[in-house]
Amino acid sequence: MPITLNEVTFVYNPGTPMEVIALNNINLNFNEGIITGIIGPTGSGKSTLLMLLNGLLTPTRGNVVVDGLITSKKGNLKAIRQKVQLIFQYPEHQLFAETVFDELTFGPKNFGREITEEQAAELLRQVGLDESYLKRSPFELSGGEKRRLAIASVLGISPKYLILDEPAAALDPAGKETIYRLLLSLKKQGVTVIIVSHNMDEVAYLCDQIVVLDRGRIAAFGEKIEVFHKLMEKNIPGLSLPVYAQVIKLLQSRGHKVKMTISLEETVGEIVRVVRGND
Amino acid sequence: METVIVANNLSYHYAAEKERYALQNVSLSFLQGELVALVGPNGSGKTTFIKLLTGLLEPNEGYVEVLGRKPQKLKEEGLLGTQIGLVFQNPDNQIVAAVVEEDVAFGPENLNLPTGEIIKRVEEALKLTGLWELRQRASYALSGGQKQRLAIAGALALRPRILLLDEPTSMLDPAGRQEVLNLLLKLNEEEKLTIIFITHYMEEALRAKRLIAFDRGRVAFDGTPNNFFRQKPLVQQLGLDVPPLYKLMERLWKEKIFIPDTVTTPEMLVEEICRLR
């Protein structure tokens, strides 16, 4: 059973002058075994949605159900948190242990699991680091390495759902690429991945399914290509299309009959048709 | 064109890592009105270079001259900001006052300028950065892009001839990034400000007129962005990526559709496609 949101509304400071409706009557289904991207301008409710998924927040109205467990029930929380792991933006700021090994064993210990040195080394390999790192201090690693360590320390809990807020933000292109490879390989292993991202080209590349939020409501939801189709018609301030979709949209606005796409090869094909007058 | 910055044979190593140079034998010079992107992997020396240009660090070897003077000297005289404006990654760390216009006034006030002159400069800087309408706002209530423009306005109020920016867009959302990038292009185009910025976004680097790539403390490339992205092995070796728009142009060249390589935006590309038809 996946994660389901049923008519979820979330209000900050209800009944006070500071009341803000962050999410308004949301129905959503996060399917298993795929990567879902949540996009939307700043203030659209993305972070609130993330925090609802592992019970860090509970809905003001409606409910969130994880594998049949309702998040609003206190007794369910431990089981839910073991299944759903949430990684905030810049998780490397949360590193604290003296060695990489201690960092990796801390999380699982809280769920009653001991991690051996061998298992710790395996976790590091999953994120493209090796066992030589085990005895080092987390604080002497590079920015990209710290980010990967932070993610590895969560993988030790073997979550079924992994939720990440801007996992590649502020990394250099090589660092981004290792994060992408990691997420794609986790998907292959059957982990359900949900990411929040501001980078449209990143979402276009990584995700199977996309949720677009706009002022607390769902502006679009579905398969990646369908969603980008919708976004071409609806203009949501603060959201930009992937570069290839921008080119296609500009060609359409000039009266050319070109097909919407986000792939390089198909964009080339469409442009070739336009230039040769076959559109 | 006047040379505004000379960096001659610069080397620098941080005290803790004597054996590893953060920067090694780097010689570069910059002309008035240039728009330069500095790129390279984490730890390649970009930020060290900018810190040396502004006198935040002193080189172990070599020297820097900003408009013919040593940055340390300018700093001692409190005049560095009037020559070089410096903007960092996180706008929250650079905003000092609670109200937008007061924040911009902070720099000129410290120069002991007459009140009339301060008011004039604040107005000028706020108008240039498109923040004039927001001048009475609380600075904490601005969006990320607006905050970064405020940080730039604060630097501009000292009327520098050079603006150095260390990843000014990396903490912003796409709308904020666009705002800041457009502002930089405008300041360069209309005010002829010399602008040097560090970025990890290759589509931003593509918009610069000159691109300098750093690799392990040395200059690995210095030329136009398009010439850089043409050198696939080098781009790969540096762990950088080719921007999607450039990839598209390359594929079109293979199809014998010759888009001029001066194209840097989707709008320009579509303009060229329609012209070819």
UniProtKB/TrEMBL annotation, chain A:
Q: How does it sit in the membrane?
A: Peripheral membrane protein
Q: InterPro entries per the record?
A: AAA+_ATPase (IPR003593), ABC_transporter-like_ATP-bd (IPR003439), ABC_transporter-like_CS (IPR017871), ABC_transpr_CbiO/EcfA_su (IPR015856), ECF_ABC_transporter_ATP-bd (IPR050095), P-loop_NTPase (IPR027417)
Q: Name one GO cellular component term.
A: ATP-binding cassette (ABC) transporter complex
Locations listed in the record: Cell membrane
Q: Does the keyword Nucleotide-binding apply?
A: yes
List, alphabetically, the SUPFAM superfamilies matched. P-loop containing nucleoside triphosphate hydrolases
- Domain (ABC transporter) spans 3-240
The UniProt entry lists the main location of this chain as membrane
Stated family: Belongs to the ABC transporter superfamily.
What is the name listed in the Swiss-Prot or TrEMBL entry for this protein?
Cobalt ABC transporter ATP-binding protein
What species is given as this protein's source? Carboxydothermus islandicus
From TrEMBL, chain B:
Q: Which PROSITE patterns match?
A: ABC_TRANSPORTER_1 (PS00211), ABC_TRANSPORTER_2 (PS50893)
Q: Which UniProt keywords apply?
A: ATP-binding, Cell membrane, Membrane, Nucleotide-binding, Translocase, Transport
* Pfam families linked to this entry: ABC_tran (PF00005)
Q: How does it sit in the membrane?
A: Peripheral membrane protein
Main localisation: membrane
Q: Please tell me whether the keyword Cell membrane is annotated for this protein.
A: yes
Q: Where is the ABC transporter domain?
A: 5-241
The UniProt entry, under CDD domains, shows: ABC_cobalt_CbiO_domain1
Cellular component aspect of the GO annotation: ATP-binding cassette (ABC) transporter complex
GO MF = ATP binding; ATP hydrolysis activity; ATPase-coupled transmembrane transporter activity
Q: Does the keyword Nucleotide-binding apply?
A: yes
Q: Which N-terminal stretch is annotated as signal sequence? A: none
Q: What is the annotated localization of this protein?
A: Cell membrane
Family of the protein in this entry: Belongs to the ABC transporter superfamily.
Q: What is the official name of this protein in its record? A: Energy-coupling factor transporter ATPase
Species in which this protein is naturally found: Carboxydothermus islandicus
The lineage, from the top, is:
Bacteria, Bacillati, Bacillota, Clostridia, Thermoanaerobacterales
